[in-house]
Amino acid sequence: SLNKMNFITRLSVLHLRKGKMQQRHQSSRRPAAPLGSRILTDPAKVFEHNMWDHMQWSQEEEESAKQKAAENSLVKVQWEEQDKYEREAKILPEKKRKELKTKEISSEETKRNSISSFSQKNEMLEEGEKYWKKNDKGDSTYAEGYIYDKNHTKSFTDNPQGQNCGEEVGRLESFRGSNATYRILEVGCGAGNSVFPILKVLCSTPGTFLYCCDFASGAVELVKSHSSYNSAWCSAFVHDVCDDALPYPFPDETLDVILLVFVLSTIHPDRMQGVVNRLAKLLKPGGMLLFRDYGRYDTAQLRFKKGHCLSENFYVRGDGTRVYFFTKDEVWNLFSLAGLTEVQNLVDRRLQVNRKKKVKMQRVWIQSKFQKPLMLPLNNPEETTK
Question: Any residues with CB less than 8 A from the CB of 116 and at least 6 apart, and which?
């Protein structure tokens, strides 16, 4: 339906507003989308902006980065300490976890904090519009019989289809959001920096539902206590994605989109495949998993001192959180082994600068989209011959 298609479009507009006043430099040699179009063509102007897109590393820069990573990996964290970090794995820094239990973040403050992390996610969500166009037949059982007022409360209409349907809805609804026709899950929602901008669009888009989860109960509590949170189209819950025995609050093959952004890097490499496999099962056939995380030789990796390396390209920060730095081939292997098909898998290299201190930092991220294949029709000749 038009409302559903507009949902993703409006998310993209929110991102574009942030950068509409910024000057753009196009380059015919590098793609303008989806990873930005501010190209550094004159090195003398490097400190005119905070970030430059599509940076190409020289062989010398590549070798220097490899050497720095090799040097800071020479001294590994002792096995006893590594076991401790695994047992007491923390997605949020301890200081932040304590803040979440005692501090109420205002709506305006959350909005300010949300800009950077949400802008990285909503540009990937544009793929959802294509999925909607292909799969939506215009029916929205979630919207049937309901209207949404300015306070985002749900009520029955006088529509005959909506009359006396309260008992029917209660009987059929086996899980939260079961009546929605388009469902999104954000893994590792934190304090809701991306949740609330998404909800702002969702509240006027019947047929959609957002699930969001986090390892930290304090983070989830903060999301649920926020004034913009509404259980009519959102369900926040505590979940450890590494716990295979812990069920999700909805069945497999339920989700249209999964956001996995700067989460997988916090998990031990030996457990990553299991996490991805489990998430892949949650997707509907044709559903999309959107991934963004740290890339190999990012400035954050090169800045680690000796003694912080847990294993190859896997480190522990001073606050106890862990971080892995991916190559796009590793990402491809993880999702392909989970049965997903590559739609996009890119290395996002940018130059971040501190104009005041005249410092340059090479940032590297991996941004990917992987799709669950559509099921073969029952009358497919190949299927019947098996």
Answer: none
